[in-house]
Write a structure and sequence with these properties.
Distance between the termini: 35 Å
Number of strands: 11
Strand content: 15-25%
Shape: globular
CATH superfamily of the largest domain: Bordetella uptake gene, domain 1
Helix content: 40-55%
Number of domains: 2
CATH architecture of the largest domain: 3-Layer(aba) Sandwich
């Protein structure tokens, strides 16, 4: 589990404020908070946002309004958040695909990481490899055997080329003996799960929470997860590490960001509110059902994790010759 440290290093970035700015910070938040989720409704990030929304609002004493802005493997919503006023009233809830898009920059586009301050790493959990019952794959070993027998012929859906799920899939395929599949991009986990349910792709790599409900209902088959251990709520779904790729571990994560320049007091308030919401018993129970683990890592350590994830994804993207927008 990630270490927890104080938020004081983030506070050291404080600048001398005007009296009106000080009063505004003391009154924060005085109106509803806009939480941008850079994915369509129904995916893993949106699912987590809905789980924590009410508890976060209670912690802040204000309504939290989720604004789904999908497209571009999360880039469009992230860009929208980067242009928002740095006043604490617009936050970004992003997953490790934010790190993936930084690892695969679009030619001529400025990096987005510098436009944000990491506030709280909220949760970690597995990516999942799913299939539909009619595919005939009853185990991840059968899936791997088919990929070896028919290189490039299996279609594996991912929430966007260059997304964290896509790059995690590439890491997984490499670790399993350099398997070859054809990745099919979608605008988010929600649309991907719907197409998988219809049998339009052979399998999907997506945040496990996006397909957890369908696995429980028997509509999808959970072939494997990318965490070191099986999920308590899904003990029959094995890990990649215990099956086709010993030692493979590549969890996903989600966290809160604020536009750079957001007042320090607002950042501190948001961090306290997010970590407080993660302690809510109802939130904890729902996260466990989805296979997520609350973390609550502070902004400084979250930033270091972010940078390490960027390097991991950049390395596999370079090796596989993957470019943004392919």
């Amino acid at each position: 589990m990630f270490a927890r440290r104080s938020f004081t290093r983030l506070l050291s970035a404080a600048v001398v404020a005007t009296p009106s700015a000080v009063r505004a910070a003391e009154d924060y938040p005085a109106r509803p908070i806009r939480l941008i989720v850079p994915w369509p409704a129904g995916g893993g990030v949106d699912t987590f946002g809905r789980v924590i929304q009410a508890a976060l609002g209670a912690q802040l004493g204000q309504t939290v309004i989720i604004d789904n802005i999908g497209g571009g493997s999360g880039r469009i919503g992230t860009q929208t958040a980067s242009r928002a006023a740095a006043d604490g009233y617009t936050l970004l809830l992003a997953n490790d695909t934010f790190a993936a898009t930084e690892a695969l920059p679009i030619t001529g586009a400025a990096p987005l990481r510098s436009a944000f301050v990491p506030v709280t790493l909220a949760i970690s959990g597995p990516q999942g490899l799913f299939t539909h019952p009619k595919s005939g794959f009853k185990s991840v070993d059968e899936f791997a055997a088919a990929a070896r027998a028919r290189p490039g012929q299996l279609n594996v859906g991912v929430p966007g080329i260059g997304s964290s799920q896509h790059l995690t899939s590439e890491l997984l395929l490499k670790a399993a003996g350099d398997l070859k599949v054809t990745h099919v991009p979608y605008r988010g986990g929600g649309p991907l799960i719907q197409d998988l349910l219809a049998g339009n792709v052979d399998a999907a790599t997506v945040t496990f929470a996006a397909g957890a409900q369908q696995v429980s209902a028997g509509q999808l088959v959970g072939l494997a997860v990318t965490t070191a251990e099986r999920q308590a709520s899904f003990p029959n779904v094995p890990t990649i590490a215990e099956t086709i790729a010993p030692g493979f571990v590549q969890p996903t994560w989600m966290g809160f960001f604020a536009p750079r320049g957001t007042p320090v007091e607002a950042l501190r308030r948001v961090h306290a509110a997010t970590t407080g919401a993660l302690k809510d018993p109802a939130v904890i129970a729902r996260l466990q059902d989805l296979g997520f683990s609350p973390v609550g890592l502070d902004g400084a350590d979250f930033g270091r994790l972010f940078d390490g994830t960027v390097k991991t994804f950049a390395d596999i993207a370079a090796e596989r010759q993957i470019a943004a927008g392919e």
